[in-house]
Specification:
binds S-adenosylmethionine, Rossmann fold, 21% strand, single chain, 7-stranded mixed sheet, alpha/beta
Length: 214
């Protein structure tokens, strides 16, 4: 792997301003438990994209669906961007993560409407009716290719599919042949070539792709 990625990550972290108290507490939790969360550098991107999307759309509520929410760190960033003007669906196959998310959201006095789905994220998505403005893809990488087919028809025009880990610690451009890396390569090809999406990878942290629904 090139030395650029860790050095870039370190620099971006250094210039990132302090976060609200509860978010910083959640960051300490991730470090202590070695939890694979999106982190503050990419968290700011979620905040920025949500704000940009909402500013360009005069809707009463921005509907967000997270595929893989963990204990709510990424949802927290979406929520502080939009406040009461967001409906955020959280999914996780570990119910205790969602319980922790509830605790942190209460502690941070967040104003968004939260809907919690314990169990498989894609199953929860298919059981939830309606279209969404933003979908975050952050589940196990083997399931990534399935996300495109499920999500694209359910995104509003101009909506965003945001996908984490598309650089995968540099393994995608190395010689790795393991199944997770293969899945990410396949997913990347799908979101770059899909006729209904326009995608770019932002090379921060582990690579966050922003796909806009055309
Ligand atoms: C990488 S973590 C990210 C959490 C969150 N997006 C963040 O950045 O703070 C992904 C979470 O999704 C859960 N997960 C992975 N695959 C899943 C699936 N197919 N269905 C439901 N949850 C899943 C994992 O247990 C983990 O808690």
């Amino acid at each position: 792997m090139s030395d650029l990625l860790p050095a870039l990550d370190k620099y971006l972290l250094k210039i990132t301003p302090p976060r609200p108290k509860t978010l910083e507490e959640m960051e300490r939790y991730a470090k202590k438990h070695d939890f694979p969360y999106i982190g503050p550098v990419a968290g700011r991107l979620l905040y920025q994209q949500a704000l940009l999307h909402a500013t360009n759309n005069s809707k009463a509520k921005t509907k967000i669906f997270e595929l893989g929410s963990g204990y709510g760190y990424s949802a927290y960033w979406f929520s502080i961007a939009l406040g009461a003007k967001a409906e955020i669906h959280l999914t996780d196959n570990d119910e205790s993560n969602l319980e922790l998310a509830r605790k942190y959201f209460k502690q941070g006095r967040l104003k968004s409407k939260f809907v919690y789905h314990a169990g498989d994220a894609l199953e929860s998505f298919s059981k939830t009716r309606g279209k969404f403005d933003i979908v975050l893809s952050d589940i196990h990488k083997k399931d990534y290719p399935t996300v495109v087919k499920a999500v694209v028809p359910r995104l509003n025009k101009g909506g965003l599919l945001i996908s984490d880990n598309l650089i995968w610690s540099g393994k995608v451009f190395g010689k790795n042949r393991d199944s997770a890396t293969a899945s990410i390569r396949k997913y990347t090809k799908l979101v770059y070539t899909h006729p209904k999406l326009f995608t770019t990878i932002i090379p921060i942290r582990d690579g966050v792709a922003i796909s806009i629904k055309l």
